[in-house]
Amino acid sequence: MSKKIEGFEKTLWLSSPTMHGPELEYMTQAYKTNWMSTVGTNINEVERLACEKIGCKYAVALSAGTAALHMAVKLAGVKHGDKVFCSDMTFAATINPVVYEGGEPIFIDTEYDTWNMDPVALEKAFEIYPEVKVVVVVHLYGTPGKVDEIKAICDKHGAVIIEDAAESLGATYKGIQTGTFGKYNAISYNGNKIITGSSGGMLLTNDEEAAKKVKKWSTQARENAPWYQHEELGYNYRMSNVIAGVVRGQYPYLEEHIAQKKAIYERYKEGFKDLPVKMNPYDAENSEPNFWLSCILINPESMCKQIRGEQEALYVREVEKSCPTEILETLLKYKAEGRPIWKPMHMQPIYRMNGFVTREGNGRAKTNAYISGGSIGKDGKPLDVGMDIFCRGLCLPSDNKMTQEQQNIVIEIIKSTFL
Ligand SMILES: *Cc1c(COP(=O)(O)O)cnc(C)c1O
Question: Is the pTM higher than 0.90?
Answer without folding.
Answer: yes
